[in-house]
Structure formats: C-alpha cells, structure tokens
Design brief:
Keywords: Plastid, Transit peptide. The chain has about 240 residues and is an alpha+beta fold. The protein has 3 helices and 12 strands, in the order ββααβαβββββββββ. The chain has one domain.
C-alpha cells in the first residue's frame, strides 16, 4: 500500500479515511437514536427521521440493517479484500451497500462511531487501498498481512499496510493525515509522505497525497465509504 485510501481510507491514490478539523468542532446532540455506542462515548447518532416513526418501526429497521451488514460482510470475507471476487460478486456487494445507505445516520461526519480502528476488508478497486503494493505485480511480491485505518479525534487519520516481501521479509507502509470536513457526508484527508519499513530499513519517500471520501454508512460494526473516483470501501471495526 504505497498509500491507503485512494483509504479513500486510505487515498484516491493511496486509500484512506478521515476526521474533523479542530476549526470545525462537531457538536454532538444528546437526543440521538438507535445505536448504543461501544466506544464509551456519552452520545449516540441520529437516524434519519423517516425511520423513527414508532418503536416497532425502529426494531424492524434495526433488524433489516443488521441483516444487510451481515450480508455484506459474508460477501467480502475470504476474497483478499475484493481481489478474488468476480464481476458479479462486486455487483452484489455494491447492491447491499446501496441498500445500507438508506439507513445511514443523518450527518455521518458528526457521528462518534467513525472514530476507532478499522480493518479494510474490501475495496472495489484493488489498487485504491495500498497503491502499487496491491497491483497485480505488487501482490506477487508483497503478500498483504493486514490493512488498518485508524481515525482519531478530532482530526487524525492513520493508514497502515503490513506485508511480507518475497515470502520472508516483513515490511510496513504507514501514512498519517489530517482530516477536513467538506460537508455532512464528505471528508478530505491530506496525508504526509508515506513511511516505509522493510526489515531493518526505515525511510520516508514520495510527497503529500490527498483523498476525498463520502461516508455512506456507519454503525458499531462496519463503515462504508465511497471515494471521489467511485471506489467502494468496506471497513470492519477491529
């Protein structure tokens, strides 16, 4: 992963995700609905109004969204983050992601659930998360061990790709960026030059990179994002 979200989360070139600038502090409202947080946070996120008509309706929505979450995870598990999926498989993932988008909180960039450590379990474009390390040739040389994105309050995003080179040399590519909020759903992350660690060698290379990502769904278990070039990302909370 020369760079993460292209990490989206990770970068349009690197693949990554994003956080909020201090200058645009988020005001969390105490009257949130539906999600009980597992991050020891004192607030919850608002569901869209059309899903809060009654208690019974909320229960149905919660069950439906849970089913969709389980469905999308089952479709991407064991696919090398989407690399081994056929065209029909990618289309099935996109369809479930589209359905889940209907259950997204009103202002996902203001939801504290975006913070935490996330495993990049799927990307519709293999090279979006990881860059050249995830290209067809790169995968022959570098076997990906893990692809993690950490979103820290208030506005820090860290991407990390761990790999084994030639089957015996451990390595890691890391990116650190600042998150800027563009609107209620879109974020921008500007990353510093990547750092590469390969065996005993450790150095920084390249220049800054930038990624824009739309948060299309987030809950206690997963987060979905769509890059400015159309890449679909599925993140699973670690």
């Amino acid at each position: 992963m020369a760079s993460f979200l292209s990490l989206s989360i990770i970068n349009c070139k690197t693949s990554q995700l994003l956080l909020l600038p201090k200058s645009k502090a988020i005001v969390f409202r105490p009257n949130c609905l539906n999600h009980s947080l597992k991050l020891s946070l004192p607030i919850q996120c608002h569901k869209t109004k059309r899903f809060s008509a009654s208690v019974s309706t909320q229960e149905e929505v919660r069950t439906s969204s849970d089913d969709l979450v389980n469905s999308i995870l089952s479709k991407v598990t064991g696919t090398d983050r989407g690399v081994s999926l056929p065209k029909e498989g990618h289309e099935a993932v996109a369809e479930v992601a589209s359905q889940l988008q209907k259950y997204c909180v009103e202002k996902p960039v203001e939801c504290p659930l975006i913070f935490g450590e996330w495993d990049v379990v799927y990307c519709s474009i293999p090279t979006s998360p990881g860059g050249g390390y995830r290209s067809a040739f790169g995968r022959l040389v570098f076997k990906t061990k893990e692809m993690i994105q950490v979103v820290e309050a208030p506005d820090i995003v860290k991407n990390k790709v761990s790999f084994s080179a030639f089957g015996f040399l451990d390595g890691k590519v890391s990116l650190k960026g600042k998150l800027n909020v563009l609107d209620e759903k879109w974020i921008q992350v500007i990353f510093e030059p990547p750092e590469l660690k390969l065996g005993a060698l450790e150095f920084q290379y390249g220049g800054e990179s930038e990624v824009k990502l739309e948060i299309t769904y987030v809950d206690e278990k997963i987060r979905l994002g769509k890059g400015s070039r159309g890449s679909l990302f599925v993140f699973k909370r670690c």
